[in-house]
Design brief:
Blueprint (H helix, E strand, L loop, with lengths): L1 H10 L11 E7 L7 H8 L2 H4 L2 E7 L5 H7 L4 E2 L2 H9 L4 E6 L6 E5 L13 E4 L5 H12 L9 E4 L3 H10 L4 E5 L3 H6 L3 E5 L10 E5 H6 L1 H20 L1 H12 L3 H14 L8 H15 L7 H4 L3 H7 L3
Parallel strand pairs: 1-2, 1-3, 6-7, 6-8
Antiparallel strand pairs: 4-10, 5-8, 5-9
Helix pairs in contact: 2-10, 2-11, 10-15, 11-12
C-alpha cells in the first residue's frame, strides 16, 4: 500500500529532469522554491552529471516525504524540518547535509491584518505538522504573545504554492511562504507581516535519506553531496549566473531575484553543514512541540560522515 501511495504522489509531480546517462537519483521537493535552489543549480550546471548521476527532482507533498524515503521511491528529501522530526520520533531516516541555517520565509496575511498580533483567533496554513514552516510559525507566534496551541487554528495544506492558493481563496488567513512567492503574493494584494529569518534559527534545505540507503549505497551519498555542495558554493560565488537561474526557475523579476539572492546569502552555509546554534534551536523547538524531555543531541539528527568526507575533514 505504501508503494502505491508514494507512486501516485510521484506520478503527479510537476516535472522530472530530462533523461540522461548515469545512475538515476530522485530528489524530493515539496514545491519549487528558494530553499532547494542549490539542487537546481547543480542540475543545470551539470554537477550531478559530473558525478555520474542522473538527478531527477520530483514534487511530493510534504507529509509523504518520509514514507517515500522509506519505500525507496525517493533517494533524497529536501524537507529538512520534517526529516529532523521523524528522526527524533525514531523513524529510520537521517539528515546528511544542510545549506540554509535560517528560514527563508515571509509571514503573509490577507488584507486587514497589519501585525502578527492580528492573527489571534485566525486560521494559519502550514505545509504539514512538524515541518519547518510550522515550527517557525509557532516560535513567531509565541514571541508575539500568542499561544500557538490555543489561540490560532493551524491547518496542514501543503507546499508554498498550495498555501498561497488557500490564502487567496480565503480558506486561511495567513501563512509562511518561501521568499520566492513574495512578489506574487504582494501582486495579489496580500500583506507581508514578518520576515521569519529574523525570528528564529532553523535549518531550511538539506538532504535527508533513509538509514537503509546509508547502509547500502554510501558512495552515492558522497557523490550526491559533492555535486550539491558545488551548487551551494556556486550560489555564493557566481552572482550573475545564479540570478539568471533564479529568475528562470522561480519565475520572478530581476529585482525580486536580486532581493531573494541577498536573503539567501544571509542564511547560506557554504560548507554544507549546519550551525550548532541552528541545530540547538531546532531540537529545542521540536522537543517543546512534541513534549519530549529526553536529551537529544545533534548527532541524533545528523550523520556527518559524508559531508565531512567531501570537505576532507575527520
Amino acid at each position: 500500500m505504501m508503494r502505491i501511495i508514494v507512486f501516485v504522489a510521484l506520478a503527479t509531480t510537476l516535472f522530472l529532469s530530462p533523461r540522461a546517462h548515469g545512475e538515476v537519483i530522485t530528489i524530493g521537493i515539496s514545491t519549487p522554491g528558494l530553499y532547494e535552489i542549490p539542487t537546481e543549480i547543480a542540475q543545470r550546471k551539470g554537477f550531478y552529471k559530473d558525478e555520474g548521476l542522473d538527478a531527477r527532482k520530483v514534487v511530493v507533498r510534504t507529509g509523504l516525504h518520509v514514507a517515500a524515503l522509506l519505500a525507496g521511491e525517493l533517494d533524497y528529501s529536501t524537507v529538512s524540518g520534517l526529516i529532523g522530526r521523524a528522526t527524533i520520533q525514531g523513524l529510520p531516516v537521517k539528515s546528511v547535509m544542510g545549506w540554509f541555517d535560517r528560514p527563508l520565509h515571509i509571514l503573509v496575511a490577507r488584507p486587514g491584518n497589519k501585525t502578527i498580533s492580528d492573527l489571534k483567533g485566525k486560521r494559519i496554513a502550514v505545509s504539514t505538522v512538524g515541518s519547518a514552516p510550522h515550527i517557525i510559525l509557532r516560535e513567531a507566534l509565541t514571541q508575539a504573545g500568542i499561544n500557538p496551541d490555543k489561540e490560532v487554528a493551524t491547518l496542514a495544506v501543503g507546499g508554498s504554492s498550495d498555501r498561497l492558493t488557500a490564502l487567496v481563496s480565503g480558506a486561511v488567513d495567513a501563512t509562511a511562504l518561501d521568499l520566492a512567492y513574495i512578489d506574487k503574493a504582494e501582486k495579489l494584494g496580500l500583506v507581508p507581516l514578518l520576515y521569519l529569518g529574523d525570528v528564529v534559527n532553523l535549518r531550511l534545505g538539506g538532504f535527508g535519506v533513509s538509514t537503509d540507503k546509508i547502509q547500502k549505497n554510501p558512495r552515492q551519498i558522497v557523490r550526491t553531496i559533492r555535486a550539491t555542495l558545488k551548487g551551494v558554493r556556486f550560489l555564493k560565488n557566481n552572482k550573475a549566473e545564479s540570478l539568471a537561474i533564479m529568475r528562470d526557475y522561480l519565475h520572478v523579476s530581476a529585482d525580486v531575484a536580486e532581493k531573494i539572492h541577498q536573503f539567501s546569502l544571509r542564511s547560506l552555509n557554504a560548507d554544507g553543514l549546519v550551525a550548532p546554534s541552528t541545530l540547538e534551536a531546532e531540537i529545542r523547538l521540536a522537543k517543546e512541540q512534541m513534549k519530549i524531555s529526553d536529551e537529544i543531541t545533534a548527532d541524533k539528527l545528523m550523520d556527518w560522515r559524508f559531508i565531512k568526507e567531501v570537505l576532507g575533514q575527520k
